[in-house]
Structure formats: C-alpha cells, structure tokens
Amino acid sequence: MGFRVQPEGLDTYASLLKGLQDDLKTAQDYLNQHLSYDYGDARMFATIANANNATKAAVGDNLKHLDQLLSASAGELVKSANMYRETDANEERRLDETYPSS
C-alpha cells in the first residue's frame, strides 16, 4: 500500500476552512453586539465591566488570530493540492516518455 494524495480532498478541506472564516465573522458580530458594556451601563458593577471588556478584547484577539490561521492553512492546502497535481502530471508525462512511440 503506497502513499496517495487526492488533491480534490485538499481543496475540499481548504473550502471548509474558508467557510469557518464566515463563522468567525458571525462570532465577532455577536461579541460586539452582546458583550459591549461601558461604565454607564455597568454603574455600580464597574469591576464587572472591566472584566467583561478585558475578556471581550482577549476573545476578539483570539478570533483575529484564528482567522489568520484559517486563512493561511486554507492557502497552504490549495498550494499543496496544486503541487500534487503538478507532480502527478509530470510523473505521468515522464513515465509516458519511457514507452516507445507507436
């Protein structure tokens, strides 16, 4: 049993990762809509507002980082799929050249 890569599978996985980036946009929108408190909203719970704002900033930073990772990963998967296609085509061509022409 040999090693075999299906480039279409890599393309499919890259598409799934790109789709997750859309979900990140939804998460960021939710974060901005539902976790935005200022000190006027918090009033006597200013400590809670501080903790909320710090948590919101940390989650927002993580979402941005995850978006970068997904984008880079999807791009590399597409590059890998193309490299496997090119390698397979070159090897097929090289093998065909070893046969006598008819």
Automatic annotation (TrEMBL):
Compositional bias annotation for Basic and acidic residues: 85-102
Protein name: Excreted virulence factor EspC, type VII ESX diderm
Annotated segments matching region Disordered: 83-102
Source organism per UniProt: Saccharopolyspora flava
